[in-house]
Amino acid sequence: MKSNDLKTEEKIYTVSEYLDFINSLIAPQKVVVQGEISQISPGNGYVFFSILDKNEKAVLKCFIWQRILNNLGIELKEGLEIQVKGFSRIYKPNGRFTFEIENLGLIGEGALKLAFEKLRKQLLTEGYFEAERKKPIPPYPQKIGLITSGFGDAKNDFLTHIGVFGYKINFISVRVEGLMAVDEITKAIRFLNENLPEVEVLVITRGGGSLESLQAFNSESMVKTIIGSRIPIVTGIGHENDETLADLAADYSASTPTDAARIISEHWRNAELTITNAQKNITSLFMNSHSNYKKIVATNEAYFLALPRKIISIKEIKLNDLQRLLESQIRTLISQIKQIQTKFFTNWGVIQNLLSNIKNEISRQEAFLNRESFRWSKFIATFLSELEQKLALGNPEARLKQGYSIVANESGKIIKSAKQLSIGQTLNLKLYQGTAKSKVNKINN
């Protein structure tokens, strides 16, 4: 090519600039590649090796930092089938095209079991699974972080069995399988810890599967992220027989997503049952008390109703005696009239006086009877009205309506004195409308 064929306006790169330019184009393109390990060449803190595609006779030169391999707990061996996630670049000092690995996963159950057992023993020796590290699960959580796939059954199983107890669930959808799953799950754990301090418990869950499909939960970085979580973590990974390193590191390991929901809601369900039983006991106690009050009222009612009848009966006897006396006096007067009939004409003035006296006496006695009847009728009406008011005041429903309440301990026994109380004791309150619970903070005897 002649020099005059080059256009002066075209950019002319140095070798270094051109390689930087190429790297800027290819490095951001992160991909997952599968192949067979060959030509392992350890270095100082890193390892070079190749992965082969034997069918197509293709080779990809790879580079990985030793610390990444240590975190994964994987020992590279020629012939192992692997998947690698990373990006390509050209190493400028020698112009070599290399695939730099950020994550690596084994293919095949045998290799995975060996890697799993090796890493499990290493982390166990380092104390990552010690019981002393585990944080208690709060008994009545309301703010929950849920990390799982948004498309699998695990999410629905958990939400279906968690119950309705006023939860606020912060859900983060992640991959739960493949090389990208580890990075997404660990980032979700850190995000909830750093940005949502109100979250009380964190749940990581997915459905069952093969050891290969659960590989994301068997990495050192997953274990360390779980151990470092400020928020207590419950795992519900796989089926009952599945156990991952994440389960061993978690503060509580549930056998399934459904079991994880049961663990989270267990105290809520027990409290709900306790409240239901307490309501039944209070209702039964109130009904029994009401029945006893009715019996007492009925007994008192019979007594107090009989009392005015007795008083009236006494007055009736007195009135009857007065009536008989009056009749006797009238008969006497009539007899006297008959005796003086013969003297009628000669003693007319005396007869008139006698008849006037009789008339006056009859009017006086009638007025007396009317006064007594009115007085006793008013007395009886007033007595019965007062009795009715006293009976109404003795009605428990009336007392509750006035703002009073029935206080009972948790066994249903009615509290009548402050001497029956103790600090911190839970009390059940029966109000006119509904029930409530309270806790004793102070006692004044």
UniProtKB/TrEMBL annotation:
Q: Does the keyword Nuclease apply?
A: yes
Key words, A-Z: Cytoplasm, Exonuclease, Hydrolase, Nuclease
Q: Could you give the subunit structure recorded for this chain?
A: Heterooligomer composed of large and small subunits.
Q: Which GO terms describe its molecular function?
A: exodeoxyribonuclease VII activity; nucleic acid binding
- Protein name (Swiss-Prot/TrEMBL): Exodeoxyribonuclease 7 large subunit
Q: Which reaction does it catalyse?
A: Exonucleolytic cleavage in either 5'- to 3'- or 3'- to 5'-direction to yield nucleoside 5'-phosphates
Superkingdom of the source species? Bacteria
- Residue ranges annotated for the Exonuclease VII large subunit C-terminal domain, each copy included: 128-438
> Gene Ontology terms, cellular component aspect?
cytoplasm; exodeoxyribonuclease VII complex
Coarsely, its chief localization is cytoplasm
Q: Name one Pfam family in it.
A: Exonuc_VII_L
The family classification in the record reads:
Belongs to the XseA family.
High-level lineage = Bacteria, Candidatus Shapironibacteriota
Purpose of the protein: Bidirectionally degrades single-stranded DNA into large acid-insoluble oligonucleotides, which are then degraded further into small acid-soluble oligonucleotides.
Q: What is its EC number?
A: 3.1.11.6
| Cellular localization per UniProt | Cytoplasm
- OB-fold nucleic acid binding domain: from which residue to which, for each copy? 13-104
GO BP annotations of the record are: DNA catabolic process
